[in-house]
Design goal:
- This protein is α+β, with helices and mostly antiparallel strands and 372 residues long.
- The chain folds into two domains: 227 residues, P-loop containing nucleotide triphosphate hydrolases (Rossmann fold, 3-Layer(aba) Sandwich), CATH 3.40.50; 110 residues, OB fold (Dihydrolipoamide Acetyltransferase, E2P).
- It has nine helices and 22 strands.
- The strands form five sheets. The protein has a six-stranded mixed sheet, sandwiched between helices. Strands 16-20-17-18-19 form a five-stranded antiparallel sheet, with no helix packed on it. The chain has a four-stranded antiparallel sheet with strand order 2-1-4-5, with helices on one face.
- Helix 2 packs across helix 3 and helix 2 runs parallel beside helix 4.
- 38% of the residues are buried.
- The C terminus is likely disordered.
- One of its GO terms (cellular component) is ATP-binding cassette (ABC) transporter complex, substrate-binding subunit-containing.
- Belongs to the ABC transporter superfamily.
- Keywords: ATP-binding, Cell membrane, Hydrolase, Membrane, Nucleotide-binding, Transport.
């Protein structure tokens, strides 16, 4: 296991890049601590597979360094980085038994057979495939094949990092939740550094302690699942995470006050800087409520999604979603929308431009300090 450091990392598939647009991977600086669970999340083409290939050694970056526990491995090939990788399609030997598949990475490195048996049995128990050890892999179901592929990555105790590249894509939807929970359980038990690449927000948020959200080769935010949901640093994060995604509403600043049409909007805190550029108000549907006063709107659609109701409205020419409990108003109803102030933020050119609201505890502490 290892701490992984990416220092001033950039990559271009163009031989002589001359502008930022030539880089498939914009500059990245980050640290992943030893034993952590991390996810690279973003749509196809955002650069996450490029980054994974650079970390694994399949690709040498145009600029920057990759460090494992402080050792520069930037130019080392994959076999010298001591990593394990689980791919989208299971990598197993169909003619071998499950036991021999799990044992192969250890036998290939000349480990004593007693150690091989100990590790295989331990991993098989974790994966709940002990009863399959004598079966040939060709007869396994797709989810069990992927389990064995995961086990081959986890069976070695000396790996620096285990990387998962879209490992659940080919798994039936009703089996995905089982493998997601199993993978999280495995991480908690083996304590290996794990990096999970996916375009699926549910997979990333349920697995990782820290999620790296990418767009167009740029890391737009790194944070816990809670941080990404509650305080998106960029409108892309707000759109990409959550269902429905964050409401992003064009606004006009008048004397430092944002207006949606003719309606003023109260923000979570002061605006940072000059706020010059494209200005938008961002608020998640979970923090929009139907009230007696607020932004006048008309209900255009009501969707009962089981746990709650999504009310789609139109106000000042903009579509705004609200998530409420209970039965929603009828389509065509005139309503007022209230925005929860501590969850209402200004974004300038996509980036958050308001200071975070103080919690009640912080406010109380500050008041007590001033009084002393």
């Amino acid at each position: 296991m290892a701490k992984i450091t990416l220092s001033k990392l950039r990559h271009s598939y163009v031989p002589n890049p001359s502008s930022e647009s030539d880089y498939a991977l914009k500059e990245i600086d980050l640290d992943w601590t030893d034993g952590g669970a991390y996810a690279l999340l973003g749509p196809s083409g955002c650069g996450k597979s490029t980054l994974l290939n650079i970390i694994s050694g399949l690709l040498v970056p145009s600029e920057g360094q990759i460090l494992f526990d402080g050792k520069d491995v930037t130019t080392l090939p994959p076999d010298q980085r001591n990593i394990a990788q689980v791919f989208q399609f299971p990598v197993i030997y169909d003619t071998m038994t499950v036991y021999d598949n799990l044992a192969f990475p250890l036998r290939n490195r000349g480990r004593d057979e007693a150690i091989v048996k100990e590790r295989v049995m331990a991993i098989a128990e974790m994966l709940e495939v002990t009863n399959l050890l004598t079966m040939r892999a060709a007869g396994l179901s797709p989810d069990n094949k992927q389990k064995i592929s995961m086990g081959r990555g986890l069976v070695r105790e000396d790996v620096n990092v285990v990387m998962f590249d879209e490992p659940l894509t080919v798994i039936d939807p009703h089996l995905k939740w089982k493998l997601r929970s199993k993978l999280k359980e495995l991480h908690q038990r083996v304590k290996a550094t794990m990096i999970y690449v996916t375009h699926d927000q549910t997979e990333a948020l349920t697995f990782a302690d820290q999620v790296v959200v990418m767009q167009d080769g740029l890391v737009v935010q790194i944070g816990t699942p809670v941080e990404l949901f509650e305080r998106p640093a960029h409108t892309f994060v707000g759109h990409f995470i959550g269902s429905p995604g964050m409401n992003v509403l064009p606004c006009e600043l008048r004397a430092g006050q944002p207006y949606i049409g003719t309606h003023p909007v109260a923000l979570e805190g002061p605006i940072k800087g000059d706020a010059i550029g494209k200005t938008e108000v961002g608020i998640r549907p979970e923090f929009v409520s139907l009230a007696n006063s607020g932004l006048p709107a008309t209900v255009t659609k009501v969707s009962d999604v089981g746990r709650h109701t999504v009310v789609e409205c139109e106000a000042e020419g903009q579509r705004i979603n609200a998530v409420i409990d209970g039965v929603g108003p009828a389509k065509g109803s005139a309503v007022h929308l209230a925005f929860r102030q501590d969850q209402t933020r200004l974004y300038v050119d996509g980036w958050i431009a308001t200071e975070a609201a103080q919690s009640a505890t912080e406010t109380k502490t500050e008041t007590e300090e001033q009084a002393q």
